[in-house]
């Protein structure tokens, strides 16, 4: 990471909101790396606890694996719900009080939360911990707002892509590290996550500047800090409303992968847990590579609009093939093609960011965080239900890939909305 050539960042003066291209040796290099590491820590914190969660729930609650799975679903839903509710809150707070205090306070609370979960002796403490964790993990909106603050317009898509890459790397490394740490007990991953969060806070305290100026600061209002209020305010901006619909439909569609991939590949191809893990790891690495490397040349040579169209095209192709695929080998070879669709999110973010005033960058990113969290809540419920209906014994039609057909339909609707839209920026 330290060897990345970064364009579009420099030390910000009170009125210097569009810095010139620099090398990584300049003053904004460490803040930039701090923000990337914060996003990575968020993702690692989520993934670290996944391998040990069943055993941990059985340890504190007892019962059967089936009951533990139910509680696991409750904990995951609580986490996503808090991100939905508090993404706009933290985004608006960062517009009012700055990116630095929001990120630093969140890291402190996150570290303390992991300590509490490491010491938890009941399922209710774990639930409270996941609720607090969902709030602190909603800082992705503030991290993205920081990127918007310090990026030149033509660099926004690439820098949003680097945030996505950092999250993807963290989400790949988290479960791997969590599985290894789980050998030392079900509490070890929580202590490690607490330590990582504390280290992140220490780094941020030393290097993180404030990028919200008096010129761009916007008073905090609870009427706009809730998801509905923030959504109304952002959707009222010229050209934004259709892009928000596209972003939401795209998010619901691509969450078909984490929602049903394990079940689909077991049912259709008979894959082992090891093979499923390898395939998910390859997908995560592919997404990180695309968002961290490919997005910059794609938007530079094609433009953001054409990049979105191309990325959605790759997703449409992938969904159509996976719906009827019967070969596990071909499914594995299709993963790099599927990962190419990851250019859509940063390109869409950049288009919306460029159409949003500086004083509402945090609010915009909070809305996007809320839409993603809502997708994480809705998509697994819908996709797994459809999967169950099409694989159950005695069903009218046997089609394990049916959820991909729904994802295909949603993606086509999003594609049509985007194609007909005429955003305020190009």
Q: Can you give me a brief rundown of this structure?
A:
Helices cover 75% and strands 0% of the residues. It is mostly helical. It folds into two domains: 27-208, Up-down Bundle (Growth Hormone, Chain: A); 240-421, MFS general substrate transporter like domains (Growth Hormone, Chain: A, Up-down Bundle).
What can you see in these coordinates?
The chain is mainly alpha-helical and about 425 residues long. The protein has two domains: about 25-210, Up-down Bundle (Growth Hormone, Chain: A), CATH 1.20.1250; about 240-420, MFS general substrate transporter like domains (Growth Hormone, Chain: A), CATH 1.20.1250. Helices cover about 75% and strands about 0% of the residues. The longest helix is centred in the N-terminal third of the chain and has 33 residues, at about 65-95.
């Amino acid at each position: 990471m330290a060897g990345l050539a970064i364009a579009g960042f420099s030390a910000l003066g009170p009125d210097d909101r569009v810095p010139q291209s620099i090398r990584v040796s300049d003053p904004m290099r460490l803040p930039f790396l701090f923000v990337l590491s914060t996003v990575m820590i968020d993702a690692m914190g989520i993934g670290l606890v996944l391998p040990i969660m069943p055993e941990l729930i059985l340890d504190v609650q007892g019962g059967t694996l089936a009951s533990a799975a139910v509680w696991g679903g409750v904990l995951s839903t609580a986490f996503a719900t808090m991100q939905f509710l508090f993404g706009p809150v933290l985004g608006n707070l960062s517009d009012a009080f700055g990116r630095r205090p929001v990120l630093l306070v969140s890291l402190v609370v996150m570290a303390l939360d992991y300590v509490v979960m490491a010491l938890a002796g009941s399922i209710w403490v774990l639930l409270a911990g996941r609720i607090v964790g969902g709030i602190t993990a909603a800082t992705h909106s503030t991290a993205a707002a920081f990127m918007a603050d310090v990026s030149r317009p033509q660099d926004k898509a690439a820098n949003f892509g680097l945030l996505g890459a950092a999250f993807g790397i963290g989400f790949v490394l988290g479960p791997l590290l969590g599985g290894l740490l789980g050998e030392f007990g079900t509490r070890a991953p929580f202590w490690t996550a607490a330590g990582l969060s504390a280290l992140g806070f220490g780094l941020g305290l030393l290097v993180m500047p404030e990028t919200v100026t008096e010129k761009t600061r916007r008073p905090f209002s609870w009427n706009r800090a809730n998801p509905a209020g923030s959504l109304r305010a952002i959707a009222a901006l010229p050209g934004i409303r259709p892009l928000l619909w596209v972003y939401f439909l795209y998010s619901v569609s691509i969450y078909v992968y984490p929602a049903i991939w394990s079940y689909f590949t077991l049912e259709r191809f008979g894959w082992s847990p090891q093979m499923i893990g390898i395939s998910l790891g390859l997908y995560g690495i592919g997404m990180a590579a695309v968002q961290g490397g490919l997005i910059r040349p794609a938007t530079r040579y094609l433009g953001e609009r054409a990049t979105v169209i191309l990325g959605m095209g790759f997703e449409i192709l992938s969904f159509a093939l996976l719906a009827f695929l019967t070969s596990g080998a071909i499914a594995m070879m299709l993963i790099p093609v599927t990962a190419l669709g990851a250019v859509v999110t940063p390109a869409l973010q950049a288009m919306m960011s460029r159409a949003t005033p500086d004083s509402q960058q945090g609010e915009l990113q909070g809305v996007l965080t809320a839409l993603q969290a809502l997708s994480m809540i809705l998509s697994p419920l819908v996709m797994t239900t459809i999967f169950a209906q099409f694989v159950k014994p005695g069903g009218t039609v046997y089609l394990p890939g049916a959820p991909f057909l729904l994802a295909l339909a949603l993606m086509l609707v999003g594609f049509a909305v985007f194609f007909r839209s005429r955003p305020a920026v190009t």
